[in-house]
Design brief:
- By secondary structure, the chain is an alpha+beta fold.
- It is built from ten helices and six strands; from the N terminus they run H-E-H-H-E-H-H-H-H-H-E-H-E-E-H-E.
- A hairpin with a 2-residue loop joins strand 4 and strand 5.
- The longest helix has 24 residues.
- The chain starts with a helix and ends in a 6-residue tail after the last strand.
Length: about 250
């Protein structure tokens, strides 16, 4: 091998190593999504749902994020019968099997996930939970732990302080970075929906690493799980933080 060839090979290897280092610094790969709803906005267009008809300004979901789900990437309905899958897709979730949970988990989930009043936990387990290796108690336990960490952060504080007002993407990303480390906001996508002429923030979907798919994630730091995920586009750039009530 000539000296020129050797220098070329050395340069190529160094570029590959540098590229890998940059990729590692930028984060890993998104394997799970934590979906956190802003329930008042969801309820504006789902007023007949039980959890929306019963919502009040004093209930936790009026000023905190609610658990929508914990979703494995590119997997759903694992080992689920065609009948259950059809019932789920029809939206008649109360026809799905009841999810067997410990009494403590069931009570906590009713608070963290108001949609349990409409069978949301049955849908989430059939479509997403079945694709994890966790028990139902662990699966929902992880989801509740992570949305609890979100509600203890600057992100929730930002939303609670701006109920009835518009909030921009940059402010939300900055709140994520403040609570979960630089770049955390680059691993979040925001969804908005219109109610009349108002564009409301309806949900945040947060990228997480593969470690979110184990029962041990019930004690994991949300920051570590976010930092281990890949980057995404933010989606909606601005929306109103809706207040409870119609």
């Amino acid at each position: 091998m000539s000296s020129m060839q050797l220098r070329t090979l050395t340069f190529a290897v160094s570029m590959i190593v540098a590229g890998a280092a940059v990729a590692q610094e930028a984060g890993g790969r998104t394997r799970f999504i934590l979906a956190a709803s802003w329930q008042p906005a969801f309820c504006q267009t789902n007023q007949k749902k039980a959890e929306c008809a019963s919502q009040t300004g004093e209930r936790p979901d009026a000023t905190n994020f609610s658990l929508h789900g914990l979703w494995p990437m590119r997997q759903d309905y694992c080992g689920v019968s065609a009948e259950q899958k059809a019932a789920d897709k029809d939206g008649d979730w109360n026809k799905l099997p009841e999810v067997t949970l410990a009494a403590e988990t069931k009570t906590a989930l009713a608070k963290a996930m108001p949609g349990t009043q409409s069978g949301l936990e049955r849908h989430e387990w059939v479509k997403h939970g079945t694709c994890t290796k966790m028990s139902a108690d662990d699966y929902f336990g992880v989801g509740m732990h992570l949305v609890g960490a979100l509600n203890a952060s600057a992100v929730r504080d930002l939303f609670a302080a701006n109920i009835g007002k518009p909030v921009k993407a940059d402010a939300i990303k900055a709140a994520f970075d403040k609570s979960f480390g630089p770049g955390a906001g680059d691993r979040v996508k925001m969804s908005c929906r219109r109610a009349g002429n108002v564009r409301m923030i309806s949900e945040l979907t947060i990228g997480l690493s593969e470690a979110a798919g184990a029962a041990s994630a019930k004690s994991a730091g949300l920051a570590d799980l976010i930092q281990g995920a890949g980057k995404t586009s933010f989606g909606c750039d601005e929306g109103v933080v809706d207040a409870a009530g119609f």
